[in-house]
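Weekly modeling sync, notes
Attendees: S.R. (lead), two postdocs, one rotation student

Agenda item 3: backlog of single-chain predictions. S.R. asked that every request posted to the team notebook include the full sequence so nobody has to chase files. The rotation student volunteered to paste the first one in as an example of the format we agreed on. Action items at the bottom.

Example entry:
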Amino acid sequence: MTETLPPCPECSGEYTYEMGALLVCPECGHEWSPAAAEPTGGTEGGVIRDAVGNVLADGDTVTVVKTLKVKGSPSGIKAGTKVRNIRLVDGVDGHDIDCRIDGFGPMQLKSGVVKKS
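Predicted structure, as returned to the notebook:
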């Protein structure tokens, strides 16, 4: 009996595959943790979770888990960058963390690209 993998939570693509501890969508490139039954960064019931399913709160310190492209910046935000004193917001397009990143200034991040430190 074959195991069926869930569709991509971003684009609903049905061709997801496992890569290590993550599920990956080849259509849009989205990666998420299968351990969290819901898509990472879910806001069900007002709870915001990080990429591995930990509950986030205002004032937490988080670490960026993958390199992010930033418009107007040649380097972007590198994986492993620590972000201190986050604030949870009801942002636009899934950006639910309001923060200040050294060298970049104030910005919003998606909870699916950070993990609690």
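Discussion: group reviewed the output briefly. The beta strands are 17-19, 22-24, 31-32, 62-64, 82-83, 87-88, 95-101, 105-110, 114-116.
Action items: rotation student to repeat for the remaining queue; S.R. to check formatting next week.
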